[in-house]
Structure formats: C-alpha cells, structure tokens
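Problem 12. The chain below contains 420 residues. Write out its predicted structure in token notation.
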Amino acid sequence: MIMIKKIALLLLSALTAACCVSSKSNTTPDGGNEDDKTAKVGEVLPAWSEGQLDIHAICTGRGECFFYIMPDGTTMVVDCGEIPSGISTSTTPAGDEITIKTVNPMPNSLAKAYETVGRYVKHFLPSGKSEIDYMLMTHYHNDHMGSIIKGYPQSSAGNYSLTGIPGLYSVVPFKKMIDRSYPDYTTYSPDIVKNYASFIEYATSTKGLQVEKFEVGSKSQIALLGNASKYPSFQIRNLCGGGYVWNGAAAIDCYGSSTLNENGASCGFLLSYGKFDWLAAGDAGDTNSKVAYLMASQIGRKIDGMKAHHHLSWKSMAARSMSILQPKLIVSENFWTHQPWPAEFDAMYGAYPGEKNIFFTNIAAEVAAANPGMMSKTTGYNGHVVVRVAPGGDEYSVYLLDATDYKYNVKAIYGPFKSE
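Solution.
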C-alpha cells in the first residue's frame, strides 16, 4: 500500500511538472518558465527578482510608455505619452483621408495616463526603491511626452501642466532625464515642448534633476547602477537620435540639409543581455527617413525582439529592415484606430520566415472585427505586455496583464522562448 501511494505521488508530481511547461506561443493556465514558476493566470504577476530583465509595455490607451527593470534593479521609463480622447483625420499612403479615433483609456474613462503609469511603476519598482533611475523621452510628440489637456492640473510649484512626463514626475520622481536635444528647446514651437522645458527648468533648479542629451553611439550613458560587474553581458547601445544613426564608428546624419522629421529624430537603442537582444527606437520608422534601415543595417543580424516602430502605423516596419532583424517577438503600443495598419502588418509579417509572436496593448473592437486575418496572426492583445527575461538572458516569457483595473492580474502566459 505504501509503495502504491509513493508511485501515485510520483506520477502526480510528474504530471504537474508537465502541465507547467508551455511551448511556442500557447497560453499556459498555470505557469511560466523555470525561473518564474509562481506566475499564475488570474493572479497578480510576481515581482521582478535579481538577475531578471523586465520590459513592461504599459497600457494606458493614451500614449506610449515602456518600463524597464534591469538585472541589478536599475530602472528606466521610456516615454510617457498622453493624448486627449477624440476623433481626427489622417491621410493614408494611398492618399485617402480617413477618420480615426482614440481607443478607450485604461483602466477607465477618468484615468489620466501619467497617473496610471505612476501607479503601475510604483507597484513594480524593485523593493526598497522609490524613484526611477532613468527617464528617456524619444522625441517631441504628445503621444510620447504628454499634451496640454483642458482640466488637467498645473504644478503647484512650477509653471507647467501636469501631463505626460512632467505629470509622471509628480507621482514617482526620476533621477536623470535624457532627451534628444537638451539644453536646446528653443527651435521647437509646440506648447507641449514649452511646457516640458518649463518642467525641466523647475526640476533641475529646485529638485536636483539631472538632464542629458541622448548620446548617439554611447554604450555607457544608460548603464547598470547597482552591480554592473555581476552582469558583464548586459549593455544598452544608443543607436539613433536627432536624425543621426551610429554606424559603428561615428554618428551619421540621415537628413543633411533636408527638414528633420520628428519621428525620424527619435532616440533608439539596442539592449543586449546574454543571448537576448531587444530594439526600441520610438517612432523611427521608414517614413521620410533612412533611420530605421540604417539602424537595421548597423545591427546586421537577427534579434530576439523589438518594440514596434511608430505603433505599426503605415510605413513603419518596412520589409527591407525587417528582413535583416527578423524578430520573433514584436510588442506594439496602440491607441488610434489605424494602429496597427493592416497592410503594414501583412507586409511586415511576410517580410521574413519563421516564428513571430506579436502583441498589442490595444486593438479597437471594430478594427479586430474588420481584420480577422490580422487577428489570427496576433498572439495577444488588450492589456499590459510584460517581457520577462530569465537570469543570464537564455530565455524569456511574455505575460499579458489585465489593464482594466490596478490589480495587474495575469490574463495569459506565453513561452518560455529560447533566446538566439
């Protein structure tokens, strides 16, 4: 009888272990990778732990924001967009004028994006931390830095509106701000840039905020601050910014005497951790510039994952670039009904062979209903997307979190996937 019980227990243990391992992009009901066994669908995503790399695409429905927790606990937020709800028009590559509208804000209609981001970041900050180490703004567009929105509060101390990046600072401060042009903001006329400049003036003079211009080509500007020697394979290489691209020896001007396109001026970097590589470059797609292609050519090899250029709008993820990079993982933040653009999605999807796992923080219901082919190729959507890379960088898993409240429960788990 005792022997039978032992055999039964061994069989049950083996069955349980088998059920906790997933393959490819199938959702697992009760487990993640071997470094994160406690992740469960329906429960709060476990906190980051030492040695892991976390990449969080925060879903606000009002702009782009990514939150990074590096292997030693160094933290970085990239962008904090905040656009008003509404309807607008846009012109397609074919010259057609279409009506577009914003998706629903998350987690509810009363939420301000900077507050949503602030609460999210404070929840997932490593234990003992109360500040963000680096804040990087990729470029001067409101879906990446904030908008002047009627009804939003003014700072009680400085002469600026609390929105986007300045608003986030009021919720969870950051130690160092990096943008593409510091200290020169005089050539940029939009009110939101003036608002940002007022924030910078206040925070540097009274709060001790450090501000730097993004250094194209640097691999030390964004570095591990806690225990860099423990993670020698971790690196962030600045690849593009202000219309320049690093070619391995120098920063090359992609525009010359032509007018600088603000999307093409985006700051971008390649993050490497062991075998894992991740590209993030704001809106530096293929519209009116050679930035994306030159950047892909400089990388010159396959990467594991990337943030979608320009929310996978039209002319953002051209085949000539994607055929070089061939990422298995693409994460896109979307907040308009033309994002992703179906034709761009199809062209990107067909640009290279092999496995592709594509995630969107938001896809409007009407867009999903009208594009069943695109949706059948989409791995996960509508929620916060978390890429969690195991210590050493050999594998990673992806978690889709519920964005309709502030609990951060796991909706689905994908992976683990092997880094290449």
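Discussion. The longest helix spans residues 2-19. Students who got a different answer should revisit the alignment rule from Section 12.3.
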